[in-house]
Specification:
globular; about 35% helix; alpha/beta; about 20% strand; about 240 residues; 9 strands; 3-stranded antiparallel sheet; single chain; 6-stranded parallel sheet; 10 helices
Length: about 240
């Protein structure tokens, strides 16, 4: 059995508009199973900071770990782990419905270069949905059948504005060119289309794992996601 002393630390990097809270149920399960886990807060959420500030936050978390790490980026979080992930301590990149971008690309450019009509823009910040009702509808569209609308309402009230700059800043470093990568592709995603995920995963050369979940599998099925992440992050024995 792999012990915590031989396991890498898992560093979870959230997407736009949200925070480390999105991972909380899965984090608790992983820690109970003996994993060392950090879910970091990106400075671009709730501010006007850019991609490089987010990448610096990822680098700081790597260096605090003082040992091997696996970086896990969700959605926009794929951009800062790509920028910061070419670090000697990083053993693997894990993209969860995430932006595995290339040098010279931005998240917005990858989406076609135009902000969706449903996003609001004001004072250098972007909101998911121009109104609370629009935000609720966007979240609800990604939920599994049968989930009460109240869940989407509660989540919508946790969302914060995202820095526009973080979405238009271009990457200058591309860690998936030098590090092993896994792409967890969410087949029922109503936020980041699966064909778009397929194209990013194929270009990066990542191992692809397809799961029948929406955009936030760690909320839909925390135990299943934690088990999958533990399997991906577990060091593989070296053949003699």
């Amino acid at each position: 059995m792999t012990t915590s002393s031989t396991r890498p630390r898992i560093i979870l990097v959230h997407g736009a508009w949200v925070g480390p809270w999105e991972f909380e149920p899965a984090v608790q399960i992983l820690r109970e199973d003996g994993w060392d886990v950090d879910a970091i807060d990106l400075p671009s959420t709730g501010s006007t900071d850019g991609l490089l500030a987010d990448a610096a936050a990822v680098t700081a978390a790597i260096e605090r770990a003082d040992g091997p790490v696996v970086l896990v980026g969700h959605s926009y979080g794929g951009a800062p782990i790509t920028q910061a992930g070419d670090h000697p301590s990083v053993e693997r990149l894990v993209y969860v419905a995430a932006f595995a971008l290339d040098a010279g690309e931005s998240a917005l450019a990858a989406m076609g270069g135009v902000l969706p009509d449903a996003w609001g823009v004001e004072n250098g910040q972007v909101t998911m949905g121009r109104t609370r009702d629009e935000r609720i509808e966007m979240i609800a569209s990604d939920m599994p059948p049968g989930v009460p609308r109240e869940v989407s309402e509660q989540l919508a009230d946790l969302f914060r504005p995202q820095s526009l700059r973080s979405l238009i800043d271009e990457l200058t470093q591309v860690a998936w060119r030098t590090k092993p990568a896994t792409y967890i592709l969410t087949e029922n995603d109503g936020i980041v289309p699966p064909p778009f995920q397929e194209s990013l995963a194929a270009r990066s050369g990542a191992d692809v794992i397809r799961i029948a979940h929406g955009h936030a599998p760690f909320q839909e099925d925390p135990a299943g996601f934690a088990a999958l992440l533990a399997r991906v992050a577990t060091p593989q024995p070296v053949a003699n």
